[in-house]
Amino acid sequence: MTSLLWHGLLALGAGVLLNATPCVLPVIPFKVQAVLRDIGHSRRRRVLAALAMLSGSLLFFAVLGGATIALGLTWGALFSSKAFVAGLTLFLLAAGLFTLTERSVILPQWVYAVQGQKYVGAFLAGLLTGVLATPCGGPFLGAVLAYGLTQPPLIGLMIFLSIGTGLVLPYMLLLVWPWLSQRSIKTGPWAGQIKQLLGFVLLGGAAFFAQSLVPPQIGRLLWVALIASLAGWTVWHLWGRWSWGQRAVPLAVGLLSMFCAGFYFLGDPARELHWQPYAPQVLAQAANSGRPVLLEFTAEWCLNCKVLESTTYADADVIAVAQQGGVVPVRVDLTQMAPDLNRLLVSYGGKALPFVVLIDHRGQVSTTFTGLFTADTLIGALSKLSS
């Protein structure tokens, strides 16, 4: 009983911490709008909106948990379906365009005929939060999933529901106790600007998920178009008839966009690990030659994976230590459904992406990582491989 309670609390904390991972960025606009829509109303309405958001999250995690337990799926397996990713991309694109024009997404007419439809937005925010949190793993997530999937089905389902509760808990608290958000955006000149920026966040999510559906050249053009649109928006607000206070937001956005564009387009190709695509013979050759292996499980739809590849793996010290130790970097691509590669992930104890396995020169697993980690953490683990 104590172990169940402990892992339940750990799952709740893992859900809360998922909000700090890059994967949930595309759903932030929905959650922010859901909070701002109801925060000024009566306490009863705010509590019901919070419960509606929780219901959306729990519904998704109940389905996900049931499918995972019954079918042996891994966390984020939904995103291996091209049809699912295409549908999500189109939805984010439409929602982003509607948000940029400061309109609301039009729902089917039957939705508005349902009693209590005012809470549909909060319900959908909770549902989408669950959907968009599943491509990537976060702190403690691997441990709680490993525990849940080795327990009876009912306990495993409770673990999934605890993760779903933690995921929307911060926003439920903002709804129930609005004094926690006293510094939130008020109505006024900035409100429209912030809402339009949230639209760009949604378009960025659409561009990111579209990358796994189109050739790399097209994916790059999508980012160019998005950055160009954001630059145009910034120039319009800087040169328009706005006060200096109203120019602060677009100026900050413009500077941040220039930095991100330079980071994305002007990166040094030489500063990267020389990854080899996974094949059984690659690991066999490394074992025969006594060389350690850095085995990365990744996917094009995994935003946390992309963050690692742009930061931790691109760190000069990481590259130097890996080269000095004769480490063989091997990449396992799970973008598309591949049962054999999924079984390989599970065989190493992986439950979510990103997942990294360090194998020493004897072919034994030395360390595993789930979620995001720093360059210093990886350097320390790589150094042990050579000792």
List key phrases describing it:
63% helix; 5 strands; 387 residues; alpha/beta; globular; five-stranded mixed sheet; Glutaredoxin; 3 domains
Q: Could you explain how this protein is built, in words?
A:
The chain has 387 residues and is of the alpha/beta class. The protein has 3 domains: 2-208, no CATH class; 214-266; 276-386, Glutaredoxin, CATH 3.40.30.10. The chain has helices at residues 2-18, 28-38, 43-71, 82-100, 109-113, 120-133, 141-148, 153-176, 189-210, 216-239, 244-265, 280-288, 303-310, 316-324, 339-347, 375-386; strands spanning 276-277, 293-298, 328-333, 355-359, 365-370. A 5-stranded mixed sheet has the order 1-3-2-4-5, with helices on both faces. A hairpin with a 5-residue loop joins strand 4 (355-359) and strand 5 (365-370). Helix 3 (43-71) runs parallel beside helix 6 (120-133) and helix 10 (216-239) runs antiparallel to helix 11 (244-265).
